[in-house]
Amino acid sequence: MNTFSLILKEIGFRKLNFILGLLAVTTAVVLLVAFDTTGRAYRRETRRIMRNMGQNLRIIPRQTSMDKFWSAGFSEHTMPEQYVHRFASLRGYSYTHLTATLQKSVSWRDKTVILTGILPEVLPADKRHQKPMTFFVEPGTVYLGSEVAGMFNIKAGDMIDLFGKMFKVIKCLSPSGSSDDIRIYGDLHDIQNILNLKGRINEIKALECLCLIEDKNDPRSMLEIAQQQLAEILPEGKVLLLKGIAEIRQKQRAAMEGYLAFVMPMIIIVCGAWIAVLAHNNVNQRRSEIGIMRSLGYGSGRIALLILGKAVLTGLLGAAAGFFIGTAVALDIGPEIFKVTAKAIKFEYSLLPVMLIAAPVFAAVAGFIPAMIAVAQDPASTLKEE
């Protein structure tokens, strides 16, 4: 009788032991797949929430008076628009969502508003697949802050005159409780023309420059490093680092990765111990059978192959069942937990071949010691005890 037939007979004879082993492997795979799938959603959700905190690096004209900057919220001076493209081409500097703006307080219809020109986000070549985090204003159109729209009873679709040029109102924004409520947003070049400041901006913002993480071996502060790196290419610029946002983002990411790094090994250890105990109990229950097999001439290798083969088969079946059950669990509960990125939770088919390889190996390793105990038994002593 070949080894595979023996494995099937063993499974049929000891159904409960096989079912418990299959349950152990399936449970391990279900938990791993569910945690991995939802863990990816967790990472996306965390990145999205942290991103929505805003950019943590601001570059303003060097001659800016900081007391006036912090009170007004923008610089009264300008710098070349070309700076944003120089920044984008800087190698070895990690960032996302680079934006350039031109802002100025003006009197419009006898009210003070902030004209804000926005350049579409500029990203390095390897990050151009990312979705923009700010809205894009088409040339010839504007977005109005809630207070501006309310003061003048302006609605989306209306045409307004901005200093002799007509613009279509695309959207009236929701109240933000900040100076954004009195802004009129337009395309950067349209606003430059209105303000007679062609080719000029007064701020560049960037999201999460990873190069600014502090190095314990470097006595310089994060701000000093940023200033030195940008000094040569942006000579008219001054770097402001919103350190609080950067630190919160990094701590949250570290906490997330630490949690996932703790959970995954714990699942593997607990389920591995479960499988090993089942395999050990199976060997103890079959001592007399193994003794008889040894006395009939079955070699140690074939007996070990029988035990490990059963573990491998259990691993394959558990991996297949666990992948689909774990994915179903993730698809069911994931969207309820991670509402921002719910649509991104999907079948991670790349996990299936990994589980089909890892689970049988995992089960075989867990059953290795019991298999060695079985082949080391002296058949004469075993049968004598029986």
Structural account:
- It is a single chain.
- With 386 residues, the chain is α+β, with helices and mostly antiparallel strands.
- It has helices at 3-13, 15-51, 66-72, 82-89, 146-151, 188-195, 222-231, 243-285, 287-295, 300-337, 351-366, 368-376, 379-385; strands at 57-61, 79-80, 96-108, 111-118, 141-144, 159-162, 165-172, 183-187, 200-201, 203-207, 237-241.
- The strands form 2 sheets. Strands 6-7-5-8-4-3-10-1-11 form a 9-stranded mixed sheet. It has a two-stranded antiparallel sheet with strand order 2-9.
- The two termini are 25 Å apart.
* Measured distance between first and last alpha carbons: 25 Å
The tally of beta strands, per DSSP, is 11
| Number of DSSP helical runs | 13
Report Rg: 33 Å
Shape: elongated
Poorly predicted runs of 5 or more residues: 210-215
The averaged pLDDT comes out at 77
Described by strand count, sense and barrel closure, the largest sheet is: 9 strands, mixed
What's the arrangement of strands in the largest beta sheet?
A: 6-7-5-8-4-3-10-1-11
List the secondary-structure elements in sequence, H or E: HHEHEHEEEHEEEHEEHEHHHHHH
Question: Helices and strands: which structural class?
Answer: alpha+beta
| Fraction in beta strands | 15-25%
Task: Report helical residue fraction.
Answer: 40-55%
